[in-house]
């Protein structure tokens, strides 16, 4: 059965990449969590998608220019939900403390500028090992350079190349650099490319699929995983089709 990966947690209903979004995704039956990591100015791995702070907080500027203490003083915009506790930018350590006793897959997307080596891969891999989560992690990035470094540091960790527009050439490249998965934009997929990836023994985790009919179609096609903002919708479809 196709896996249900919650995109930045249950981000269709809760503030993205926050502990409440991760908890709610788990509660509705997601098989895993997709999240984004980057480094603070003082070298802490935090969970946050954007390069800048404007969209999700009351502050502005590059996240990488802020220390952890400065970031922890900010609150994540709560999508106007009354009664929702104030949410902070979580660290990867906080997430690992929460997830380590749960049967959840975690897809960690590395966010770096142009794939530059700033030590993010090394820190993330070290933490994965410390928490004994090697068998529950996929590391992904749009930047081939990031993924090549990950494989050099840990040849056995599961990896996926993120793809905006899927082509046969990119599928070939993903295989050449040792990827286990491709993570394509679902809009760029077709049956020919799905079969082509299968011939290269590359599993497909597609993003971001939210509408009911699209979710049903993707499950029936049989790709490895769907990355969705609404894990509750996908869970209902999974349950219906598994009967």
TrEMBL record:
A Gene Ontology biological process term: lipid metabolic process
Any Pfam family hit: GDPD
Domain (GP-PDE) ranges: 2-238
Gene3D superfamilies for the chain: Phosphatidylinositol (PI) phosphodiesterase (3.20.20.190)
An annotated Gene Ontology molecular function: glycerophosphodiester phosphodiesterase activity
KW Hydrolase (keyword) present: yes
InterPro entries named among the record's database cross-references: GP_PDE_dom, PLC-like_Pdiesterase_TIM-brl
Keywords: Hydrolase
PANTHER family reported in the protein's UniProt record: GLYCEROPHOSPHODIESTER PHOSPHODIESTERASE, CYTOPLASMIC (PTHR46211:SF1), GLYCEROPHOSPHORYL DIESTER PHOSPHODIESTERASE (PTHR46211)
Name of the featured protein: Glycerophosphoryl diester phosphodiesterase
Naturally occurring in which organism (per UniProt): Marinilactibacillus psychrotolerans 42ea
